[in-house]
Structures are given as structure tokens and as C-alpha cells.
Write a structure and sequence with these properties.
By secondary structure, the protein is an all-alpha fold. The protein has helices spanning 4-18, 25-55, 61-85, 88-115, 121-149, 152-184, 189-213, 235-241, 244-274, 278-311, 313-333, 337-361, 368-396, 401-439. The longest helix is centred in the last third of the chain and has 39 residues, at 401-439. It is globular, with a radius of gyration of 21 Å.
């Protein structure tokens, strides 16, 4: 008994420091592990995806975004149909089973291609499109699940900590990739990724058990319920079109995408010009991912809970666009590799360290159907539509150079700042209304 007391005291002190209540500790641990496995699996493959974009030719990146967008247009209604007809406790694991099977099929395809000396271009393009779909769907489903099982108050305290689990995985994934990709080859990373995804499914079952036995949040449909969400396969589109709140979230995301695609496309060109082959390209992207994810971890674990509490949701959301204004202004003045790399790492670390956990809190004040269908549509089809528009726009105006594109990005970031503040005000109004309906 005495041997366990110091350990229990340490766990209790840690939980108190992080804002976790005793009854939540097991659920937060499983959520942390779930997101850790999910993003470890993804980030082991993300650097491979970036290298595959180079294999297909950097001039063809806009076509890859177009392929991804059309894949999303097919996948989003399919997901909406499944969500309408099957309980969440059934379809959530099967989303991940489907993608595990996909990973193993790509492993077989890459192995066959290499063993038979076939051209890698088309399978590389297919992998780029597929992984872009995979990332958005599995992460969107994850956060819908988190918004389902935790209350608004819990989300404000816990989502940053849970996000840190993802950043831990997102840090480990590229480190493993950078260490192993050259000696074992990129294709052998795929089965390792599939294994991590399988453990994420086990975490779902543990969280589902916790959600069905707890005695809180009875005002929402339960994740353990056998009742489907209902509605139609295309309900997410209608919900988005009729909600100014959701439209504002989607618009902010499209602007953010434009700025992200601008840095991504120029970064790909510079990496291709500087480093020799696919494995070396993969290593460079993995190192950059590791740096940004280490910074994201600090933001998620320590900063986001305090910024949301002290500054509010709107100001927390406005931090990234304000940094983007300054970053693109600096890039316009000095458009060199080290500056664009620094801007990309800083923007992405803030995105995942502060903005993404805060954005996921926004869906705690909407209905279950909006949480799964509208959120999923925004974060998949609309997200990739934004990528498509951004990539072709940047290609069209590419003649003005990196300096000119950076100058275009500055006023867009200013508009994004104002939009973030508006979204924060709407969130507070909705949250206050929900509290009044419970107490009234």
C-alpha cells in the first residue's frame, strides 16, 4: 500500500496541474492513447505522401489536389449515409478497419511495383490522394467522438491535453520515419502504421464502455446508444448552407488553407531543388514535422487551456491569423528557404497547438447531426475544395513570385483575424443560451 502511495500522489498532482478530475482520468488516458496512435500512424506516412508529390512532379500538385477534392466528394456522402443508418458505436470502428485494409493494399502495391521494376508515378499519385482523404476523415471522426463523450466544460479543460496525445504521436511518427526510411525503405513503414491504427480501434472500445457507464451529459444522444443519428446522406451540406455559424467556420478554414497551400507548394519546389531522391525528401519533411509537432505539444499540453480560459475562444482563434500576417509580411521582404521553413513550422505548430483544439470546441454547442455530418463535410470536402482552389489560384498567379504571393496572403490573414473574433462571439452566445436552457 505504501509503495503505491507516492505514485498515486504523483498521478493526482499531475492530474490537478492539467485540470483533470479523478473520474475523468481513465477516459483522458484512453483518449490520449487513441489520438497518439492515430497521428503516429498518419505521420509515419505523411512524409511519404509529400515525397510522392515530388515523384509525380511538383508542377502537377494542383492536379493532385483536384483528385483529392473529387475523392472527397464521393467519400463525404458515403460517410453521411453510414452515419444516418448505423449507430455510432457500430460505424466508428469500421471507419478505421476500412483504412487499415487500404494501408495494407498500398503496401502490397508498392512492394509489387518495386519487385517488378514498374513505374511508380501513378501509384504515388493514388497514395497522395488516398492519404489526404484518410487524414481528414479519421481525425474528423475522432473529434466528433470526443465532442460526443465530453461536455462543453470538459472540452475546454481536456481537449488541449487530448490534442497533446496527437502531437506526441505526430512527433514520434516523423522521428521513426526519418530514422528508418532510408535503411528499410518507405513502403515498409505502412504495416507499422496499420498496427498503430488497429490499437486506436481498441481505444475506441474502451472509451465507448466509459461513455455508456458514466452518469453525466444525459442531454445528448449517447455514443453507446443503439439509435442512429438519422437524417439523410447529404444533410451535412444543408446544415452548413443554413447555419451562419458553420459557414463562418468553413470560410475561416478556406482562408487558412489558402495560406497553408501557398507555403506548401513553394516548400516542395525548394526541397526538390535542394535534395537528391525520394528517401532524402521524406527525411527532410519528417524533420520539419518533428520540430513543429514538438512545439504543438507544448501549446496543447500547457497553453491552450489557459488561453481559452483567460482570453476566450475568439482571441485564441485569432492568434494564428495575426502570426500569419507578420509571417507573410516577413516572407515578402525576404523570400528564402530558411524564412519559408520557419513560417511553415511556426504556423503549423500554432495550428495544432492552439487553433485546432479550440476549433474542435466550437462543435460542442451544435447538434449531434451537425457534429458528425456538417463537421465531417466541412473538414473533408470543403477543406479539400479549399486546397483545390488555393493550388490552382497560386499556380495561376505564380508569375508574381513568392514575394507577390506572400503579399496577397497578408490581407487574407487580416480578414481571417476578424472572422475568428466573430466566431468566438457566436460560440459564447450559443454557450450562454445552452446554459440558460438547462438552468431555466
Amino acid at each position: 500500500m505504501s509503495d503505491n502511495s507516492p505514485r498515486r500522489s504523483l498521478l493526482s498532482a499531475t492530474a490537478h496541474l492539467l485540470g483533470i478530475e479523478d473520474r475523468e482520468f481513465a477516459a483522458v488516458a484512453w483518449s490520449f492513447a487513441y489520438f497518439f496512435c492515430l497521428l503516429s500512424a498518419y505521420y509515419m506516412l505523411r512524409s511519404v505522401r509529400e515525397a510522392m508529390a515530388i515523384v509525380g512532379g511538383t508542377e502537377n500538385i494542383p492536379w493532385l489536389f483536384m483528385g483529392t477534392f473529387f475523392a472527397m466528394l464521393l467519400a463525404a456522402p458515403a460517410f453521411g449515409w453510414v452515419a444516418s443508418r448505423f449507430p455510432r458505436r457500430q460505424f466508428l470502428p469500421w471507419v478505421y478497419y476500412f483504412f487499415i485494409a487500404n494501408i495494407l493494399l498500398f503496401f502490397a502495391a508498392f512492394t509489387y511495383q518495386q519487385n517488378n521494376g514498374l513505374d511508380q508515378v501513378w501509384i504515388s499519385r493514388a497514395f497522395f490522394v488516398w492519404l489526404s482523404v484518410f487524414n481528414l476523415f479519421v481525425v474528423s471522426v475522432f473529434w466528433s467522438f470526443m465532442a460526443d463523450i465530453y461536455s462543453k466544460e470538459q472540452g475546454r479543460r481536456l481537449f488541449g491535453i487530448i490534442s497533446a496525445g496527437g502531437s506526441t504521436g505526430a512527433l514520434l511518427g516523423p522521428l521513426v520515419t526519418s530514422a528508418l526510411v532510408v535503411p528499410i525503405g518507405f513502403r515498409n513503414l505502412l504495416p507499422m502504421s496499420a498496427l498503430l491504427l488497429a490499437f486506436a480501434v481498441f481505444c475506441i472500445f474502451r472509451l465507448r464502455r466509459w461513455a455508456t457507464t458514466r452518469d453525466e451529459k444525459q442531454d445528448n444522444q449517447q455514443i453507446g446508444s443503439g439509435i442512429p443519428i438519422g437524417g439523410t446522406a447529404l444533410a451535412g451540406i444543408k446544415l452548413l448552407a443554413t447555419s451562419p455559424y458553420l459557414l463562418a467556420i468553413a470560410t475561416a478554414m478556406i482562408i487558412a488553407n489558402f495560406l497553408g497551400v501557398a507555403t506548401y507548394m513553394y516548400m516542395a519546389e525548394l526541397v526538390d531543388a535542394t535534395f537528391a531522391d525520394t528517401d532524402q525528401h521524406t527525411r527532410v519533411f519528417a524533420i520539419l514535422d518533428a520540430i513543429q509537432n514538438a512545439l504543438s505539444f507544448i501549446g496543447q499540453l500547457i497553453l491552450v487551456r489557459y488561453t481559452v480560459r483567460k482570453l476566450g475562444v475568439g482571441i485564441t482563434l485569432a492568434i494564428l491569423p495575426v502570426v500569419s500576417v507578420l509571417g507573410f509580411a516577413l516572407l515578402a521582404i525576404n523570400p528564402v528557404f530558411i524564412v519559408i521553413a520557419a513560417v511553415q513550422v511556426l504556423r503549423r505548430s500554432i495550428t495544432f497547438g492552439l487553433t485546432k483544439p479550440t476549433t474542435d470546441m466550437l462543435y460542442s454547442v451544435v447538434s449531434a447531426e451537425e457534429r458528425y455530418k456538417a463537421k465531417n463535410f466541412i473538414e473533408t470536402a470543403v477543406y479539400r475544395g479549399g486546397d483545390l482552389i488555393a493550388s490552382w489560384t497560386i499556380r495561376f498567379i505564380g508569375g508574381i513570385g513568392l514575394t507577390g504571393v506572400a503579399l496577397v496572403c497578408v490581407p487574407l490573414a487580416v480578414i481571417w483575424t476578424l472572422l475568428a473574433l466573430r466566431i468566438g462571439r457566436e460560440y459564447k452566445q450559443r454557450d450562454d443560451a445552452l446554459l440558460q436552457s438547462k438552468t431555466g
